[in-house]
């Protein structure tokens, strides 16, 4: 083998060695850590019927219809579709007519994820109320992580 052939053979073998090192003869391992945060989501849906076909939309109007002097009751079904158990709170509008009251029978126990809880809301109209249509705004049901 002449010197030129020896040089070409050496270069060819060197090239094979480099290719082998690049494509699997040696392995480089890159190590990294990972992290993810699942956020807490307090969220409820309010239904006007037990079969959950009529939803009261946030910002919508809950229509009591025609009420009488004294106690008037309606049922709501509150579904927890968030990611944590929640405690509910009824915040009655400051614009409720003077002398009227609104309460509910929710007992303060947490509503678990996926649970639907039935509550009864009572609107009490005082004896001095005059006939007419009344409106009030910004009543709220809040859900706070239990």
Order of helices and strands: HEEEEEEE
C-alpha Rg (nearest Å): 35 Å
Total number of beta strands:
7
The termini sit apart by 86 Å
Percent of sequence in beta strands: 25-35%
Major sheet: 5 strands, antiparallel
CATH topology of the domain at 44-130 and 138-145: Immunoglobulin-like
Task: Label the CATH architecture of the domain at 44-130 and 138-145.
Answer: Sandwich
Secondary structure category: alpha+beta
**Principal-axes shape call:** elongated
How confident overall, as mean pLDDT? 87
Helical percent range?
Answer: 10-25%
Number of helices: 1
Q: What is the top-level CATH class of the domain at 44-130 and 138-145?
A: Mainly Beta
Name the strands of the widest sheet in spatial order.
2-1-3-6-5
Q: Low-confidence spans: pLDDT under 50, at least 5 residues? A: 5-22
